[in-house]
Amino acid sequence: MGLLDVSIVNVALPSIQKGIGGDAGTAQWVVSGYALTFGLVLVSGGRLGDALGRRRMFLIALAAFVAMSAFAGAAPTGEVLVVARLLQGCAAGLLTPQNTGLIQDLFRGAERGKAFGAFGSVVGISTAVGPVLGGLILAVFGEEHGWRWVFFVNVPIGAFAFVLALRLLPRAEGRPARLRSEIDFVGVLLLGLAVLGVLLPLVESEEDGLRRLWWLFPVAAVFGFAFVRWERRVVRHERTPLMDVRLFTETPGYTPGAVIGAVYFCGFAGIWLVFAMFFQQGLGYTPLESGLAVTPFAVGAAVSAAVAGRLVARWGRRLTVTGLSLVALGLGVVALLAWLAPGQDLGLVVALPLLVAGIGGGMEISPNTTLTLECVPTRMAGVAGGALQTGQRIGTAIGTAVLASVFRAVLPASGNDFPAALAVSLLCAVGFVLFALGLGIAELRARRARASNDQLLSATTAAPYE
User: Fold this and answer.
1) Are 60 and 98 in contact (CB under 8 A)?
2) CA-closest candidate to residue 159, choices 41, 285, 37, 63
3) Kind and range of the H or E element at 388?
4) What pLDDT sits at residue 413?
5) Whole-angstrom Cα distance, residue 157 to residue 165?
6) Does residue 160 or residue 275 have the better pLDDT?
7) Contacts for 205-209 with beta carbons within 8 Å, 24 or more apart?
8) What is the pLDDT of residue 125?
9) How confident is the model at residue 175 (pLDDT cuts 50, 70, 90)?
10) What is the pLDDT of residue 466?
11) pLDDT-derived band of residue 40, with 50, 70 and 90 as boundaries?
């Protein structure tokens, strides 16, 4: 539900404007406000789960998400809807890190890879099929009021999930944490301001946010630097930091895995808005038809993520390298077909390469999550998962801003040649994926070097006793 609500609302924006009124800026904030608050609280949500217990935080955040979904669906005005979406994004950001934290707590070894495989399937499906479900809901409930059911549908699903969580999630043992002593509120403020400075210009890019708010990027850098200095000070004084920066410097594989995930999401998440604009504006598809055209990617990602989760213990980083290669190949072929064979039936023509790209995407998301978090101590599992997903949210914002801007820039320059705009945008996405592939190859070589050093050290240590 949390990830679906990032993309499902895109197709409902015309319905929202028709049914509730409001200008384009209000409609844009219905989408961007959710993404903004979602990304802002991920790390803090992970730390709260580490401190207060993941089951407790999962239940609190899920209840809040369901309540805010109902609030959004019943909103009488555009302004109230924006407020509801901001609060709904906060709830989703608090909820999401508990998933990876619970997997870290409850599974070990190959079983953890299988669990992250299931998690990766959900990520792949929910990111890609949002437009399909949004279009289907609008087709069933009508354009004027269908947008309300985009939010109301979360209520029964969330209530059912709440009951299951009460029954199935294990209670944590140990004393309850004391918020004042165990939550680093200064760190929360500094990191929040840094992430806000990065995300706000990006989510406002369609409203000329990059030109108006560029100055927030250096401000974000200042707050980010201050955050790192503060967290190191907290560790030196033997207090509990919001995010122990040693996670990035002393945890093997965490930093490169987090960067690979963020860069991949720049290319992966940005293509959906471009596809929606191309199919609906360029080919005249309905929202449902537009969503169905990209379903092969979701199907491929769902299947391959589950399979890759079972193979990650054996194949390791080679899986993500292979997956990124397939994504680049599939999207590159789609770009070529759009350029060379444009036509009304392009949605069918690109089904196979999108399936290949989806298979590659599933081979990247779940194995990369497993490999990135495999050496993280369980006491830091929530904040590590939150930081990983914050990078993905920033990557999503960057990719969406860049690819949409490229699409809109190429369109008038090419005389409203929609296939050319799609092709150039997808080639930009391929560029992001190839960059992630290069990082993956470098990390694969680094892992092999570490393994060789460990074997050499073991042999040297064991030699005197032979």
Assistant:
1) no
2) 63
3) helix 381-413
4) 85
5) 12
6) 160
7) 205/400, 205/401, 205/404, 205/405, 206/28, 206/32, 206/401, 206/404, 207/24, 207/25, 207/28
8) 75
9) very low
10) 44
11) confident
Burial 372-400 (b: 16+ CB within 10 A, else e): bbbebeeebbbbbbbbbbbbbbbbbbbbb
Which amino acid makes up residue 376? V
Alpha carbon of residue 453 to chain centroid: 34
Residues 317-338 as b/e (b if ≥16 CB within 10 A, e otherwise) read bbbbbbbbbbbbbbbbbbbebb
Q: How far apart are the C-alpha atoms of 140 and 228, rounded to whole Å?
A: 50
Tokens of 307: 């399979």
Give percent of the chain above pLDDT 70.
92
Single-letter residue type at 199: L
Give the length of the chain.
Answer: 466
**Which of 398, 400, 371, 108 lies closest to 258, judged by CA?**
371
Query: Is the predicted pLDDT of residue 14 greater than 80, yes or no?
Result: no
Separation CA 194–CA 390 (nearest Å)? 12
> For residue 151, which of 354, 9, 362 has the smallest C-alpha distance?
9
**What's the token pair of residue 79?**
């302004």
Per-residue pLDDT, averaged over 188-211, amounts to 80
Rounded-to-5 percentages of helix, strand, coil across the chain: 85, 0, 15
Q: Taking the model in full, what pTM does it have? A: 0.81
The pair of three-digit structure tokens given for residue 301, joined into one six-digit string: 């990602």
Q: What is the pLDDT of residues 205-225, one digit of tens each?
A: 666 767 788 888 899 999 989
Residues 6+ apart with CB under 8 A from 163: none
